[in-house]
Design goal:
The protein is an alpha+beta fold. The chain has two domains: 9-103, Glutaredoxin, CATH 3.40.30.10; 109-224, Glutathione S-transferase Yfyf (Class Pi), Chain A, domain 2 (Up-down Bundle), CATH 1.20.1050. The protein has ten helices and four strands. It has helices spanning 9-12, 31-41, 60-63, 90-101, 109-138, 148-168, 181-194, 200-203, 209-219, 222-227, and strands at 21-25, 45-49, 73-76, 85-88. Belongs to the GST superfamily.
């Protein structure tokens, strides 16, 4: 039985199954990256819902695991050398899980780095830009009279979708026939953009058929369908 008592987060969110990967998350575009990956990989894990609407990610217990106060975070009781490992940042967690299992990332070194570059593309571009667009289009930012911020993020989000569309032309997945962490990193964000953020028409999503077809393929995967709902909201 793994001993996770050294991690203060377990005092607020106790581990019922300490030998499993502990996932601290919420079903947001960043959070579902990890739950989808865990479902795809078939790794045993125990999800803990972090209510970001109640600022639970800013509690001392959560900050002890991730000082940046963002979901998702994990504790792997069977990390490198058999010792527990805590990780935050969704891209880093995806890469760790892929390398831990040897799945969802190519073994060939060149293709491995090619995959990682697309994960970084999501982390540096798709996530931040789509998130800002959502803020200025649907949430508090829409009250701002000056619409230049919204237009800036609309144009950049559309450009990024175009980059992704160009990559996906004549490809089933971002890495061709190989479904990888690059796809997993982006599926939730693209789904959110045209769904929860209600920005389909705003960015002209239907101008990008390769992205639309890729999204449909991805959302049809059972592991994706399951991961999108984990952790369950109360």
């Amino acid at each position: 039985m793994a001993d996770l008592s050294a991690f203060p987060i377990t005092t607020r969110w106790p581990a019922q199954h300490p030998d499993r990967i502990q996932l601290y998350s919420a079903p947001t575009p960043n959070g579902v990256k990890v739950s989808i990956a865990l479902e795809e990989l078939g790794l045993p894990y125990e999800p803990h819902y972090i209510d970001i609407g109640k600022d639970e990610s800013w509690t001392p217990e959560f900050l002890s695991l991730n000082p940046n106060g963002k979901i998702p975070s994990i504790i792997d009781p069977k990390g490198p050398d058999g010792e527990p490992l805590a990780l935050f940042e969704s891209g880093a967690i995806l890469l760790y899980l892929a390398e831990k299992t040897g799945k969802l990332i190519p073994a060939d070194p060149a293709r491995r780095y090619e995959t990682i570059q697309w994960v970084f593309f999501q982390m540096a571009g798709i996530g931040p830009m789509f998130g800002q667009l959502g803020f200025f289009h649907k949430f508090a930012g829409r009250e701002i009279a000056d619409k230049r911020p919204l237009e800036r993020y609309r144009v950049e989000s559309r450009r990024l979708i175009g980059v992704l569309d160009g990559r996906l032309k004549d490809r089933k997945w971002i890495m061709g026939n190989d479904y990888t962490i690059a796809d997993i990193s982006m599926l939730g964000w693209v789904r959110n953009l045209i769904g929860f953020y209600e920005a389909r028409e705003l960015v002209g999503f239907d101008d990008f058929p390769a992205v639309a077809a890729w999204l449909e393929r991805g959302l049809a995967r059972p592991a994706v369908q399951a991961g999108l709902e984990i952790p369950k909201r109360p």
